[in-house]
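User: Please run a holo structure prediction.
Assistant: Happy to. Please share the sequence and the ligand.
User: Here you go; the ligand is cytidine-5'-triphosphate.
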Amino acid sequence: MKVLDVSAIKDGSVIDHIDSKSTLKVADILNIQNEEQVVLVGMNLTSKFLGKKGIIKIGGKIIDQKEVNKIALIAPNATVNIIKDYEVVKKFKVAVPELIEGIVKCFNPNCVSNHHKIEAKLHVVNKNPIKLQCHYCERIMNSKDIVLI
Ligand code: CTP
């Protein structure tokens, strides 16, 4: 018998296959504490290809592209499912864009993007493991250096 670890939702978004340790960071990106409809968060669930995974289900919300881009940086294996009337109507894997604008802060405290009203801009030089290069000061950042705006 197939039993769901976290129950099904009627309408909304399901972010599945999150690397378990990143689940609460994804929850932060999605600002779940301000949701008014049902929110379900599962961690350390069994996954065939990740070993352990996290899952977040948000009733009544369709996640937007900016949120998907942020999630891709934190949980590159995540899958997004859009649910309508209990059916999965759209499913896609998150993808890291080539250019990251206004999402991640440059980690160099002296960078011009941290001192003037210039939007942070980083080029993705490697996707897995993630490596970002600041457009302005050219410093290279790894996953541990990422601070989301
Ligand atoms: N889901 C849900 N509510 C629904 C339908 C689906 O919460 N009404 C969730 C499922 O629990 C699952 C995800 O949405 O976590 C994707 O559903 P589905 O495509 O049916 O599951 P799988 O085939 O297992 O997905 P995948 O192949 O992406 O692992």
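The two ends are 44 Å apart (CA to CA).
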